[in-house]
Amino acid sequence: MFWQSAYASTVGLPQSSTIAPTVDILYDFLVYLSVFFLILVTVVMVYFTVKYHRSKTGRETAYIVGSHTLETIWTVVPLVLMLFVFAWGLKGYREMRAPMKDPVEINIIGRQWLWNIEYTNGRKTLNELVLPKGKPVRLIMTSEDVLHSFFIPNFRIKQDVVPGRFTTLSFIATQPGVHIVFCAEYCGTAHSDMLAKAVVVEPEEFDEWTRTGKLPAHVNLNQIIGAVGAPTSVAAATGNGSSQPSQTPAERGKALAASKGCIACHSDNGTRMVGPSYKGIFGKKEEMADGTMVTVDENYIRKSLMDPNAQIVKGYTPSMPPFAGLLKDEEVNDLIAYIKSLK
Amino acid sequence: MAHDASASHGHDVDYLNDGKTVWSWLSTIDHKRIGIMYLVTVLIFFGVAGLLAIGIRLEHWGPTRTIMGPDTYNKVFTLHGAIMVFMFIIPAIPSALGNFLLPLMLGAKDVAFPRLNLFSYYVFLFGATLAVVAILAGQGVDTGWTFYTPYSIKSQTGVILTVLGAFIMGMSSILTGLNFIATIHKLRAPGMTFHRMPLFVWATYATSIIQVLATPVIGITLLLLVAERVLKVGIFDPALGGDPVLFQHFFWFYSHPAVYIMILPGMGIISEIMPVFSRKPIFGYRAIAYSSLAIAAISFLVWGHHMFVSGQSDFSNIIFSFLTVLVAVPTAIKVFNWLSTMYKGSIKLDVPMLYALAFLFLFTIGGLTGIFLAALSIDVHLHDTYFIVAHFHYVMMGGTVMALFGGLHYWWPKFFGRMYPEKLGRFAWALVFFGFNLLFLPQFYIGGKGMPRRYYNYDPVYTLGHQVSTIGSLMVGFGLMLTLGYLFWAAKKGQKATQNPWGAKTLEWTDAASPPITHNFHGQPTVDNWPYEYKSERV
Question: Cβ contact (<8 Å) for A65 and B281?
Answer without folding.
Answer: yes
